[in-house]
Each structure stands twice: as C-alpha cells, then as structure tokens.
Amino acid sequence: HQGRRLCAAPFQQPGLGQGHGDPPPRLPRIAENSDAIAIVVSEETGIISMAKNGVLMRHFDRQTLYTRLVDEMIPKETASEKSAAEGWKARGKRLLNWVNNKEEDEQQ
C-alpha cells in the first residue's frame, strides 16, 4: 500500500531444496531497488534475516534487529544540528550555574 512505512506478507516457497530455515532466494531482491528493508522470520527455526540494498544479513537476535531498525529509520543528526544542540546545552549549563551562584550569594 502506497505511503505505508510497514507492511507484512506471508511467504511460502516449498520444495526449492533450500536448507531448513533458509530465507527465500528472492528476499534480497525485494529490497534491492528501493529504500525498503525486508525482514523474514523462519517458521521452522526462528532465524531472523534482513535484506537491504540487495544484501542479505542473517541470524539477528531480537535486540540486534531492533537496534538495526532504529538506526535505519531514525534520521542521523547532522554535524550542524549536533553543534547547535551542544551550544544550547552549554548555554543552559552556564545559566544554571549563574542561578545557583546567585542563590548562594543571596543566602550569604
């Protein structure tokens, strides 16, 4: 469905001589010519495989898959954004120090 970010489709490919738990040979091609990420979980073995840009990666555990998906789906912070954020953090710290010093001066 156009515009959706996540979709699922059952896939069965019996009798092709694959080893048990092997992902379908067409899996890497699903994600080859697009920005799609394809994930397959073998019903037989529970092995998790992921394809991106035509490359198949196998044997993900749940945490590694989660981390990889977060890395892929959340935009990276640019250097200028990081610099701006660090600048605001530094200003915030200076302001907090100023307020704390002011309170100490008033108490004395």
What are the main properties of this structure?
elongated, 15% strand, three-stranded antiparallel beta sheet, 108 residues, alpha+beta, single chain, 3 helices, 3 strands
Q: How many angstroms does the end-to-end distance come to?
A: 68 Å
Helix-strand topology string: HEEEHH
Uncertain regions: pLDDT < 50 for 5+ in a row?
none
SS strand fraction: 5-15%
- The overall average pLDDT, rounded, is 75
Q: How many whole angstroms does the radius of gyration measure? A: 24 Å
Structural class: alpha+beta
Global shape: elongated
Share of helical residues: 40-55%
Strand order within the widest sheet?
Answer: 1-2-3
Question: What is the tally of beta strands?
Answer: 3
Largest sheet: 3 strands, antiparallel
Number of helices: 3
Task: Give the secondary structure arrangement, pairings included.
Elements (H helix, E strand, L loop, with lengths): L26 H4 L6 E5 L6 E5 L2 E6 L1 H12 L5 H29 L1
Antiparallel strand pairs: 1-2, 2-3
